[in-house]
Design the sequence.
């Protein structure tokens, strides 16, 4: 992966895998943060045509109060998501919806934020 190993998180579903790092880390409460993402999929998975990022608190049944902007950052499947903010501590689920081969695949990662 093109992302630094420090703080790197991995999510996968079937033959689609994504690595991401967050800045700042550990994830803050009440402060915007950025995700740098790399799609490391098997050749059979195809190239993503769009990526959407959101987050929710599964235990509290609510999401973020912000819209996230995802942009390609260079070549080789690198993307940046900006505008994320967790407004309270607890367990958050980051949701990645990746459009590939004409349909959407969902990858999730649960992280505890203090």
Sequence:
């Amino acid at each position: 992966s093109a992302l630094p190993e420090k703080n790197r998180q991995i999510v996968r579903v079937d033959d689609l895998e994504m690595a991401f790092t967050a800045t700042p880390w550990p994830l803050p409460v009440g402060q915007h943060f950025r995700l740098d993402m790399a799609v490391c999929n098997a050749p059979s998975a195809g190239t993503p045509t769009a990526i959407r990022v959101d987050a929710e608190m599964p235990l509290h049944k609510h999401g973020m109060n912000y819209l996230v902007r995802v942009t390609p950052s260079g070549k080789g499947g690198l993307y940046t998501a900006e505008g994320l903010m967790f407004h309270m501590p607890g367990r958050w689920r980051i949701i990645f919806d990746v459009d590939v081969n004409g349909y959407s695949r969902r990858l999730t990662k649960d992280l505890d934020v203090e």
Summary: The two ends are 28 Å apart (CA to CA). The mean pLDDT is 90.
